[in-house]
Amino acid sequence: MTKRYMDAMSLVQRYDKPDVFLTMTCNPNWPEIKCELKHSDEIQNRPDLLVRIFRAKFEELKTDLVKRKLLGPIAAYVYVIEFQKRGLPHAHFLLMFKRNSKIRNSIQVDEIVSSEIPDKKNYPYLRVTVVKHMMHGPCENLNPKNVCCVAVKYCVMVSTNTIGEVDI
Fold this sequence. Notes:
Blueprint: H1 2-15, E1 20-25, H2 31-36, H3 47-66, E2 74-83, E3 89-97, H4 106-112, H5 124-134, H6 156-159
Antiparallel strand pairs: 1-3, 2-3
């Protein structure tokens, strides 16, 4: 661990502070996972499947970021893959852009970060995905059938809120 930490710090020393902190989390509802599960299979019983599909998507993201320069030319990057308490893998990336592509103002941030709900007419699938996975709607007494209240009578999102998972 110490060696890897020192390697990451040497990247910061050479290429300056990271420009982007990016997180990728495995979604057990990805169609690639759902179509491979048999009727009697449960997601928690197939960590091999979850990890293989996550790894394939992770490698594609890495290709998009580094080779296809999706966010801009990358000088250096470092990442770590961890497992959540639920057993799902997730990755944390630190991206350092080349000197002439560093983020220097809010306009440049707005070019790569979006916090809008996609338009219903132009991007219906994207809108459904954002609303389903990135928004926490009314719950408890207002909507007891919300995902966060299904097994219990109170909102589990509020009681187990951790940085980066649910923004209420």
